[in-house]
Amino acid sequence: MVDQLLDAALIEFAAHGYAGASTRAIAERAGAHQPQINYHFRSKEALWQAAVDRLFAELDAELGATPEVLGEDLLGRFASFVRAFVGFSARRPELHRIMNQESTADSPQLAWVVSRHIAPRIEVLSVAWSAVREAGAVADLDPAEVWELLIGFGALPYANAPLRRQLFGPVRADDVDRRAARLIALLAAGP
Amino acid sequence: MVDQLLDAALIEFAAHGYAGASTRAIAERAGAHQPQINYHFRSKEALWQAAVDRLFAELDAELGATPEVLGEDLLGRFASFVRAFVGFSARRPELHRIMNQESTADSPQLAWVVSRHIAPRIEVLSVAWSAVREAGAVADLDPAEVWELLIGFGALPYANAPLRRQLFGPVRADDVDRRAARLIALLAAGP
DNA sequence: GTCTATACCGAGATAGAC
DNA sequence: GTCTATCTCGGTATAGAC
């Protein structure tokens, strides 16, 4: 039941934001009654944190813990990381939906997820990108710009899939591959 | 008072989404009492629509009605459009905050804003981009990709400004100019 | 561990005095 | 046009039977 509540919570929080999602709707989606949430978790806030924790654990599993770009063939490893990131963002749009929902104003939720999940990953990405840059053959971008391109072009279209579908119709079968390739080309050649 | 309610509504809807924002908080921010909203507007829904209408009117004013890229010096005109778009997104982050909030699930709000505001602008952009492409010297991107780059790299960082500030600190004074230049380079040279 | 019942609060909307 | 008072509903959380 805990897993089903977490799954339902991700969908509802992603769709309506922390404030807009209701524990009633989450419980109903999970096939449970609303007080079950306060039994298995302390509060709505604790449920949100548990759901976000699980989401980032899934991300790490997909990326193979953290992107290992410190070996040889740096560019190839970085490209693999980009492909995995785009693939995950397409399969699990809830992560960036939740981040977009909670990044529009300072809140306890934003501070929590930044210190616990985002900041450490920014650190890893910055180190990795520096190594890739020193190996040459990539764009003259700072880590913040790389981050912005990954999120903005690699993940946002999936986070906003309902909008995108209304505008451009059904998603192509090779959408993830095409997008990852474009993104890698952007980061490799750059503006 | 109508204007003050609309201003307050934009901030609250942008921060917490349609479901998460409360008419009480909007009224308080505007220095009014909550029933004033139902007097000046029919409902919370009507208030949201009025606020979004005003936001897109501001966007059009900033862009000079619609981007006129059908004359000569196409690339220069398109670059001006990109700069104006990035500048507006930085000055008025509420637009993309609201769009991101409402694009995570199908809803009456999303259908309304797509048919009334987004789809017509996609149409204009597609025609304009086709003209620019035929004039040559730009990237081999389809209109959907251009749209995604404009939103994802040109607007999202401002929509998520609270997150960005926590990660990368205060925004540089020349942030808009740098970003617009990068974006123009991406669209001109492309991956 | 799961159910029903319910407390308590804040939500949007309306009525009517001024 | 703006105020106070209030209706009704849905929100989170808790109590207690099973």
Q: Briefly, what CATH class of one domain in chain A?
A: Mainly Alpha
**Biggest interface between protein chains, with counts per chain?**
A-B, 48 and 48 residues
Oligomeric description of these chains? homodimer
CATH H-level name of one domain in chain A... which superfamily?
Tetracycline Repressor, domain 2
Distance linking N and C termini of chain A: 49 Å
Mean pLDDT of chain A, nearest integer?
A: 93
- Biggest beta sheet summary of chain A: none
Helix content of chain A: over 70%
Tally of helical segments of chain A:
11
CATH topology of one domain in chain A: Tetracycline Repressor, domain 2
**Unreliable segments of chain A (pLDDT under 50, ≥5 consecutive)?**
none
Strand proportion of chain A, as a percent range, falls in under 5%
Second rung of CATH, namely the architecture of one domain in chain A? Orthogonal Bundle
Could you say which overall geometry of chain A the principal axes of the C-alpha atoms support?
Answer: globular
* SSE string of chain A, helices as H and strands as E: HHHHHHHHHHH
Radius of gyration of chain A: 18 Å
Kindly describe this structure:
Two copies of one chain form a homodimer. Chain A has 191 residues and is mainly alpha-helical. Chain A has a domain at 66-189: Orthogonal Bundle (Tetracycline Repressor, domain 2), CATH 1.10.357. Chain A has eleven helices and no strands. In chain A, helix 1 (2-20) crosses helix 4 and helix 1 packs parallel to helix 6. The radius of gyration of chain A is 18 Å and the shape is globular. The model of chain A has no long low-confidence stretch (mean pLDDT 93). Chains A and B meet through helix 1, helix 6, helix 7, helix 8 and helix 9 of A and helix 1, helix 6, helix 7, helix 8 and helix 9 of B. The structure holds a DNA duplex (18 and 18 nucleotides).
